[in-house]
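Follow-up to my earlier ticket, as requested here are the two runs.
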Amino acid sequence: MSALAALFARELRLSWAGGGGAAGPAAFNLAALTLAPLAIGPSAETLAAAAPGVIAFALLLSALQSAERMFGEDTADGTLELYALAGPGLALAALVKMAAFALASLWPAPLIAFFAGLAYGLSAEASFALAAGLALAAPGLVMIAGFAGALSAGLKRAGLLIALIAAPLQVPILIFASGAGRAAAEGTGLAGANLMMTAAASLLALVLAPMGAAAALKGRLE
């Protein structure tokens, strides 16, 4: 097994054993979706109109919920130094850690989005488009959260700093993802274009975030 595959397997095990895998983010996502109608109101039209944005925002919160764990413990126990000395380098190590975190923690997000869309009054087609958009957005959200986690690794109250850094960068991805569901609900024919923009934004984060995280982690070591 290669070093990167071993790291990926290790991070998956740690995510499930130490962080509960998808349980925490999924519970946070469901709690946000359950409480939102209390503020929006019971009107079916209002709930359906607000559904894409509310469901996308709930995913953002769940992606940030445990991002502090991605690099915080590695900074504290000396694992970060081993990543820097290993052959693949910090950028690839950061990419693998983020990918493992995304797979372990956010895999239920599209399913939750689909059923939440139905519960909020969207059609099955609009709910599916929204779920597809959020499935494409999830890797990008995790990459950006990981970059923010690397910048704040080892700091006190890092969770608040991660939210302040990551949320403004994640919003554009969520605009396109929620736009896919809204376009499908309104029948504008732009759902496919929004999905492609979501994928493009997510790929951009996939390329840039690991390099930014590696630079931030390297700064922690110097």
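Run two:
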Amino acid sequence: MAGLTSIEWTEASWNPVTGCSKVSEGCLHCYAERLAGRLCFMGMKAYRNGFSVTLHRDTLAIPLSWKKPRMIFVNSMSDLFHEEVPDEFILDVFKVMTETPRHTFQVLTKRPDRLLELNDRLPWVPNIWMGVSVELSKHLCRIDCLKKSSAKLKFVSFEPLLGPISRFSIKGIDWVIVGGESGPGARPMKPDWALKLRDLAVASEVPFFFKQWGGVNRKANGRELDGKIWSQWPKM
């Protein structure tokens, strides 16, 4: 439910919510859904509902017990702003994040409309980084919603990047992550798609992080883009 993770752009994960439902093309080969299925089959109690949205109130206090500062991906196995997650539970998650300023929390959603609905009720402290996932140009509207939020640091994860991204305004975005799809049935990412986003970020002096090329064996394809490892981080 929580602990260290191999995700390149974070250090740990914390899952007060598990389970989700598909909203767009990037969800087709969801790694979290595959993993939840395996854990359910193995009899893990927390995943007894498989990939149905499930609240885990007993995990809320976990970040409070971590004394050493960590970069924490919130809900790597779900979407905090899923329509089945009650408003009050989202507020409880944010309360824990405000109570642990030693940690940095990375919240990522494909449901920015819900984010905006709750925006004025959420405590936007500096250690909460808010991001949206964008896999195709048709979903660039998610970035527009993110910009309207009151988050102190805003980031965009173009992962899995499934096509070329049309021109958009990067102003107001503090960090860009790009990555290809990985795992069974992974759809390939063309170098030009990633390079254009890299060039836009560099030209705009926005930190750029290239996570992976992806593929069935993502580690074999590595992380080099244009002969370089891009692991830039936003200023904290």
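The only thing I checked on run two: The helical segments are 31-41, 62-65, 87-98, 112-118, 141-148, 191-203, 218-221. Let me know what else you need.
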